[in-house]
Amino acid sequence: MGTTKHSGRIKLPGKPDPKLWVSKVPFGLGRIKPHHIRDTLKVMAENRDNLPYAYRILTQGVCDGCALGVSGLYDQTLEGPHLCTTRLNLLRLNTMPAIKPEILHADIDELQQMNSTQLRKLGRLPYPLIRRTGERRFSRLSWDEALNLIAGKIRSIHPKQLAFYLTARGITNESYYVAAKTARFLGTNNIDNASRICHSPSKTGLKRSVGIGASSCSYKDWIGTDVLVFWGSVAANNQPVSTKYMYAAKRKGTKIIVINPYREPAMDGYWVPSIPESALFGTRIADDFYQVNIGGDIAFMHGVMKHWFAMEAEQPGSAVDHAFVEAHVNGYETLKAHVELQEWEQLEKSSGMSRARNAEFAEMLAHAKSGVFVWSMGLTQHRFGTDNISQVANLALLRGFLGREYCGLMPIRGHSGVQGSGEMGADPFSLPGGEFKGEDIPRIEREWGFELPRWQGDIIGVSLENALLPEEHERKLKLFYTSGGNFLETMPEPDFVRSCLESVDIRVHQDIVLNTSTLADAREAVIVLPAMTRYEQPGGGTSTSTERMVYFSPEIEGPRMPEARAEWQIYCDLAARVFPEQRQIIAFPDAQAIRDEIARTAPNYDGIQHLREKGDVFQWGGAWLCEDGLCPTPDGRGTLIPVELPDLRKPEGHFYATTRRGKQFNSMIYSDTDPFTDADRYDVIVSETDTRALGIADGDAIVVYNRHGIFHGRAKTGDVAPGNLELFWPEGNVLFQKGVYEPMAGIPEYNSAVVLEKAEAFHALKDNRYVEKRIDELETDLIGG
């Protein structure tokens, strides 16, 4: 942990810099780009029935969108107001009225014809609901009836047949904490959260390399660092407020590099709405793009280090910070020997980058005195995600980019609450303030006053699969309790996931709106519980940002769903009904009592008990973790990890497919058209090289397929590395294989080898022998891949 405190907000330059302008045409007229003014007016119109409440949420609450930690209209990095379309798009979830009864209780077939966007727009969930097997519509029931039914089922099954899941939908640390305590109180370790399918490898990779499970630096370190690298991260698209930090960094002379298969237009140039100069003329963000192959990052980083070691052989100290390595790092010689065994031919083929381009990047980093590496799902959502992260850590350790100003490792989060989920213990491998192992178990038992189950809980993907186990299996999932989330739109092979969800006896959806998974059948019953938003939670709530800032978001005066309850209160009530004789163990009189207990059980969060008013915030761990190179590892040193090159062979003419986001907040889609590319949700982005080779033109109907699924879409020529395809998420999830998890972090694999053909050719030749032959060819060539 560091001792240096965050130094506070800094001012943006007042004088414009035309060298950074994208265009001299005001507001980017005539360009394909987001229309922030139009979108803001649209949001105002949508919220016109509750504008005063919407205004209070924006000016008093902590953003329930991305994890940059905007409190009211301000953060801890820059002076001046911040507001982005992600937050504005989420606003209506907090202000809209209840779903009309005639719609809520309509025939299930009518509801199932709607997609999640349409269901979300119906309104808030007003009261508890149930739909028993065979019933055609939801029925209303009381809270007592709902919770007694759930409690009775929990008492009747083995604790291993019970699983909890919490999304990051505005969920507060208080709710994560009480859910974690409730799950263990009920005897189960099957509890997981949204980070499993986005950033779990970030934690495992950083833990084994430098002993931390969160960003080592602050956003402020972007502004003035020599080089800021976005690795598999399109922050301008997914965390739009961050573009203001990028603008500030560019004004300080920072070089911004993007490493991604697709040259994302949002990172090429962006019109930052809260900066007049940028809102008018746009800002050039990226200085360069390195378009690696999907899954080619490890090879690219091997090439960087191989070049560094060659530089060292000619001139010691020209690439490696030897003073830092000798004082703070283990494994130098082992890593060096491993990297030097790599062959350039294989590195170029795997990465898709020429040796010359690799050297260019390596030398730029070698000449930089400081650097911040930022990454997201482009690195984590692989079967080798932990190795990807440790490889990034290798680069930082060799250059000494750790534990000081303008340096660091940052897994940038997409949700405002998800960083706190594991730190509160809502994770099968975590407990508040520690791991589910060793001395942390008896420590938490002493704090909580009951014995924890000692068996290892399952990750969410395995829990869902366990619904298909034989009836008497002790781990057959029989009650699944999910707070938010929609696995039909987040997991690979959605049809398989539906079969899992529908094989559970009772499924509980604790949420604020309906989604498509809420409407799936269950063997006995689907129960829906209406939750409060973070702004309605009595006593307020806290959330932890990407940079470890813990913010207090107050309860905000406004309209309420009469029967909605705070999520943490629902967990307490349920636990008390399962074991009424021990109800005092799980009881909390108010949110403040939860924060008091968090401060005792999670040492890093000592200080959360003092957050009571709007604007209250503290940063756990200080401005920089691993300050001065001292890592929270047994010997205080970081470790260089030799990682193997992943096998990425594919037959000639086949492609690798991955996903991207567009006009959405995770799986919540706000438009059928991506404002940065003008692409439809079913457009497949293909390189010009590949469209020419295949004789495909923009707009042509195409089919992308493999053994796991078939995707019907249209070709969209884009600046993507040849041999790679970009599809939208979650629409493209049909192509990814179920049950493939990264071995250390448990994240599903979201990349796959595929065949791409014109639709007319696919359908003309669509007999089983042809398709099976093509798929068999694919699978045969990918053995061991």
Tell me about this structure.
Helix 8 runs parallel beside helix 25 and helix 9 packs across helix 20. 34% of the residues lie in helices and 15% in strands. The protein is an alpha/beta fold and 785 residues long. Strands 2-1-17-16-15-3-4 form a 7-stranded mixed beta sheet. A 6-stranded mixed beta sheet has the order 25-27-26-29-22-28. Strand 26 and strand 27 form a beta hairpin. It is built from 30 helices and 29 strands. Pfam families: Molybdopterin, Molydop_binding. Keywords: Iron, Iron-sulfur, Metal-binding. This is FdhF/YdeP family oxidoreductase.
Q: What are the salient characteristics of this protein?
A:
785 residues; alpha/beta; six-stranded mixed beta sheet; 30 helices; 34% helix; disordered C terminus; metal-binding; iron; FdhF/YdeP family oxidoreductase; Mopterin_OxRdtse_a_bac
Helix and strand topology:
Layout: H1 36-46, H2 51-60, H3 85-95, H4 101-104, H5 108-112, H6 116-120, E1 129-132, E2 139-140, H7 143-156, E3 162-166, H8 173-185, E4 191-193, H9 200-210, E5 227-231, H10 235-238, H11 242-251, E6 255-259, H12 265-268, E7 269-270, H13 276-281, E8 283-284, E9 288-290, H14 297-314, H15 322-328, E10 329-330, H16 332-340, H17 344-351, H18 355-367, E11 371-375, H19 377-380, H20 385-399, E12 408-411, H21 418-423, E13 430-431, E14 434-435, H22 440-448, H23 460-465, E15 479-483, H24 494-501, E16 506-511, E17 525-530, E18 541-544, E19 549-553, H25 567-578, H26 583-586, H27 591-601, E20 617-619, E21 638-639, E22 655-660, E23 664-665, E24 668-669, E25 683-686, H28 688-694, E26 701-705, E27 710-717, E28 724-728, E29 752-758, H29 759-764, H30 768-781
